[in-house]
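I would love for you to help me understand the pair of lines that follows before we discuss the fold together.
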Amino acid sequence: MRTETVTRALGDLTRLRIMRLLAHMELAVGELAHVLGQSQPRVSRHVAILCESGLAERRREGSWTFLRHAAPVTGSRRLLLSVARLLESAEAEDESFAMRCAEDRRHLAAIRSTRESHAQAYFARHAADWDRLRALLTPADEVEAALTEALSGQKLGRVLDIGTGTGRIAHLLLPESEHVVGLDRSPEMLRLARARLQDLPADRWELLQGDFVALPHPPASFDTVVLHQVLHFASEPAFPLAEAARVCRPGGRIAVVDLAAHAREELREQHAHARLGFTDEQMAAWLATSGFTPAPPLTLPGQGLATKIWVAERGGAQQRSLPHKAAA
């Protein structure tokens, strides 16, 4: 990141407004266009300049492109903090700029409301199927309380929530975390998660589209990795667990929350479950192969299906390599 490039990027009122908006929440390019009252192609040009300067970063989710403040990289943290302080001072001291920023923030309320409306419509469309499944499971508040307790022994640090879905677990763990990344394959799920998290500090969380067998992160990126009710969608659970181990720091932890082994075949057809739960022996073997040392598992009875919580600590040695698999 070069100072002169950053200075040029900030030499436009629209781009200054965008940077102030991103301090409050991550926004799609179309949402930015709505707030700014400008055409989407014009806003896209401003977005490109901010991204090229290193001040912001884009992520595609299906047909949508989302924008957020750039994550600091080596040598850029001080400059990014200086830019943030400069923009805060500009809003405090320039009455005209402050009025424009306040008006922009008022438009964010409409964005939040629209996101929440879409989330409610999605839940309404799928309510019947989910109600039937939830009737079999351990109540969600009991599972979440048990998960929080199981992870309470040490700081959560940087957390990766694999298969974040509606963002419920990311929301649960955020207060005790340094930073939470929610990852999911589904753009629609990520939009639901964004609606849930949008009122929380924008610099404490982020959402990514990705696959649990090819995580878009370098090795040893996280202190805590969580897979909540997602591993049963993997035909080969060893592969996502190996990926979880790769991005987990030595001494970090993994928490797998999933169903105990069962025989309800209808879940394959109705809910696309590839695996009918897991035994403790299966999970212990996969975790050990991936370089984790498992703690004793916890069992939470349900009305028809028991939920298990497996927590394990990442060792310092590299996990044993798994056979190559092109797709899982």
